[in-house]
Inverse folding.
C-alpha cells in the first residue's frame, strides 16, 4: 500500500517560524517522533498514537528549526517504533520514493526523506539509530546527515535505543543540508581541514557491483577534491560480530523503552517489526553484556581509524532501493547487509553524511563520509565541496 | 553523448558570495550565457566561446546572487544559442537527467536544471524565452520560475529573442525557489491573494494521457489549497497561430542578434539548431509584421484571462522527457507540442512557475501556474503552499 509522506493525524495548519533567521522562508517536515505542543506523537503506530495525550511542549530540534525561521508544514510517516530500514508502513501506507518509483523509500525516517525527495518541503527532520536517516537519504537520492551522538538534542523526541540514537536531517541540496546543521548542532565547532581519506575496502566489497561502480566513478570524478584516497580495512575480523552486537544492544534498549507498553497493549505490529520486537523481548542480560564488550572494542577500533582530519568513505547502503513487492526474506537480507555498513558510525558514535553520488540501474545510490567525534562541520563542508560531482557522468566524450 | 552539467571552460574556483544574506552558505550554478568578470561566456557553442574576450563585468543577476550570499560554483551547459528545448549539446555532451535516466534533460537551461536535480548545487540561474527554464524544470522533477518579462535584469546576459527573454531560476524545493525570487525580482511586490483558478482545458488536451492523469491527481490532492478550480479554453482558435507567431518573432530576433556573426564565422551547429538558424535567416520583414499582429492580439487575450488574483493551471510540457535516442522528427514534434503550451506565458509576457507535481511512467511531470503581470510573488507563494502534495499518492488506502 502506497501512502502520503505525511501522517493522517497531521497538523491542521503549518507552524510559522520566526520572521528572520538562516532558514526563514523555508519549509520543513518533522518525523512523527518529535513532540509538537498540542499534537499527539505517533511513532509510526496507530495504537501508540491512540494512547498518547497531546504533547505539552515542542521538542528542542523542532523549536530550533522554528526559531531559525523554518515553517513546519507537516509530520511525516515513519516505520513503527523506528525499528526498520525499509520504510514500509502497513498502517499509513508506504511513502512514495519519487526517485525510484515502484521501490521502497527506506526508513525509518521514510516520510521525511520521501517528502524532501519529491520537493514537498525544503528540509526534514529525522532520526538515525541504525541508519534511519542515512539509508532513506541514499535510496531517495538526497542528502542526509547523522550527527555525532549527543551533538543534536533529542529532548522531546521518542527514544529508540539511546546508546545509538541521534537526530538527523535531510535536504535535496548540499548548502541547505549544511545550513540546517548550523542550526541544529550544539556548540558549533570550527571545521577541521581534510587531511586524509580512507576508502573502506571491506565496506565496498559488501555492495552490489553496480552500486560500487557508481560510487567509484564518483570518486574518480571528485579526485581533485579528495586527493589522498587510500584503501583500508575497517573491520579486520569482518562486520558480523559488530552488527550482531549493535542489534543486541539496540533490541535490548528498545525493549526497555517500549516493552512494558507493548506487553500491556498488544498493538498490531507490521511484518518485520513484530518479529524484531519478539526477538528484543527474548534478549537476556548476559547477551547484552557480551554485546557491550564487543561494542566497546569496536568503538575504540573505529575511533582510532579516524583521527582529526581523516574521513572514511563507504557506500551508504549496499544496494539500490528494494522493490515494493520484496519478500520478507529479501527485506531481512537488505537489513542485514545494510546494517553491516551503518553499524560503523553507530558503534563509533560518529557523524556520517550521505551524498546522492550517482545512479545504478537508474536508481539513486549514496556515498557516505564518516568522520571522528565532533567533525560534523567538516563533513558538511565536504559534502558541499564534493557536490558538483553528483549525478555527472565521467566527462565529455563518455558514452 | 552524455556529459557534465558544467562546461569544460568552467571557473577555476568557486566565486565566494557575501558572508551574510538570504542565500548565505548556498551554492549556485549559472547558465553559460551570463557574464562573469574575467571569464568568457560561451552560449553553448565552442566557436562562439573561442571568439569571446573575457567579460569585463559580472551580470546583474549573478551579482545579486553573490551579494545575497550564494557561492557560484560553476557555469552550466546550455543548448547552442539557447535555441532548443531538448537539452542535447553535441559539443559538450548532454547533461544527465538524474530523475529520468536515459532521457533528455530538456533545455535550453539544461545544465542548470540537471545540476539542481542531481543535488550538485542548491540553486541555478537559467533563462527562459520559449520555455528554457520551465521545460527542463518539469523534465528534471524540480521547481523552475520564469518571471514576468522585464522583472529580473538581463544586463550582462547574452540575448536570445529580447521580446520574450527572461531570466529564470531553479531549485529542488519550494521555499528555496521563493527565496531566490526575493533576491532576483526587482521592486518586490506584495503577494496578491489567490481568488480564482482556471484549468486550461485546451492545454490539458494537448498532454499525453499519463501526464494529464498525474496532474489531475495532483490537483485532486491539492483541492483544499486551490478550491475554485474551473475549466477554461485559453486559445479559442487553437494554439497553432500563436505558436507560429511566437516562432517567427523568436527566429527574427535571434537572427538580428547572431545572424551576422554566424554568417561570418560559419560555426558548427548541432542538429536542430542549424535548421532553426537557417529558418530564422530566411524570415522576411512581412512575416514578422504579420506575426507581431497575431502576438499582440494573443497578449491582450491572455492578459484579459488573468486579472489580479487569477491563476491559470496547465501542464508545463505535454510529455515526459524524450529518450536520449529520439529521432530528429520526434524531437521536432516534442518541440512543437511543448511550444503550444509555453507560448502562452511567452506571448503574454507573464510569470510562470513549474512544480514537480508527480510522475508518469516513472518520470517527472510538471504542473504550471501562470499569473498576470507582476504576480511573481503570488506564484512563488502558491508553489510553497501546494508543495506538500508533490509526489504523494492519493491517500492512505490507495493502491
Amino acid at each position: 500500500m502506497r501512502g502520503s509522506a505525511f501522517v493522517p493525524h497531521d497538523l491542521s495548519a503549518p507552524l510559522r517560524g520566526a520572521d528572520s533567521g538562516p532558514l526563514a522562508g523555508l519549509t520543513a517536515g518533522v518525523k512523527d517522533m518529535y513532540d509538537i505542543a498540542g499534537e499527539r506523537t505517533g511513532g509510526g503506530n496507530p495504537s501508540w498514537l491512540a494512547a498518547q495525550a497531546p504533547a505539552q511542549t515542542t521538542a528542542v530540534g523542532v523549536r530550533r528549526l522554528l526559531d531559525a525561521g523554518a515553517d513546519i508544514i507537516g509530520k511525516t510517516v515513519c516505520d513503527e517504533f523506528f525499528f526498520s530500514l525499509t520504510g514500509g508502513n502497513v498502517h499509513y501506507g508506504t511513502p512514495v520514493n519519487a526517485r525510484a518509483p515502484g521501490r521502497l523509500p527506506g526508513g525509518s525516517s521514510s516520510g521525511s526523506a520521501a517528502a524532501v525527495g519529491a520537493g514537498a518541503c525544503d528540509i526534514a527532520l529525522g532520526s538515525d539509530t541504525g541508519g534511519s536517516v542515512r539509508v532513506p537519504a541514499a535510496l531517495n537520492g538526497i542528502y542526509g546527515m547523522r550527527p555525532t551522538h549527543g551533538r543534536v538534542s533529542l529532548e522531546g523526541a521518542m527514544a529508540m535505543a539511546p546508546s545509538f540514537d541521534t537526530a538527523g536531517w535531510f535536504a535535496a541540496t548540499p548548502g541547505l543540508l549544511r545550513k540546517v546543521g548550523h542550526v541544529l548542532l550544539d556548540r558549533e565547532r570550527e571545521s577541521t581541514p581534510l587531511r586524509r581519506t580512507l576508502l573502506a575496502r571491506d565496506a565496498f566489497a559488501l555492495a552490489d557491483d553496480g552500486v560500487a561502480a557508481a560510487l567509484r566513478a564518483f570518486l574518480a570524478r571528485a579526485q581533485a577534491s579528495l586527493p589522498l584516497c587510500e584503501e583500508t580495512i575497517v573491520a579486520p575480523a569482518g562486520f558480523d560480530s559488530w552488527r550482531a552486537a549493535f542489534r543486541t544492544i539496540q533490541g535490548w534498549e528498545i525493549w526497555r523503552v517500549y516493552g512494558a507498553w507493548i506487553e500491556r497493549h498488544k498493538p498490531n505490529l507490521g511484518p518485520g517489526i513484530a518479529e524484531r520486537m519478539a526477538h528484543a523481548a527474548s534478549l537476556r542480560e548476559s547477551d547484552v553484556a557480551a554485546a557491550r564488550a564487543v561494542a566497546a572494542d569496536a568503538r575504540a577500533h573505529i575511533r582510532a581509524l579516524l583521527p582529526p582530519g581523516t574521513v572514511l568513505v563507504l557506500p551508504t547502503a549496499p544496494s539500490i532501493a528494494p522493490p515494493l513487492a520484496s519478500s520478507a526474506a529479501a527485506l531481512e537480507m537488505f537489513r542485514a547487509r545494510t546494517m553491516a555498513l551503518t553499524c560503523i558510525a553507530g558503534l563509533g558514535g560518529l557523524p556520517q553524511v550521505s551524498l546522492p553520488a550517482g545512479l545504478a540501474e537508474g536508481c539513486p545510490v549514496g556515498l557516505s563520509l564518516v568522520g571522528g567525534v565532533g567533525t560534523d562541520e567538516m563533513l558538511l563542508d565536504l559534502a558541499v565541496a564534493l557536490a558538483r560531482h553528483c549525478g555527472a557522468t565521467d566527462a565529455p566524450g563518455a558514452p
About this structure: Chain B touches chain A through 63 residues (CB under 8 Å).
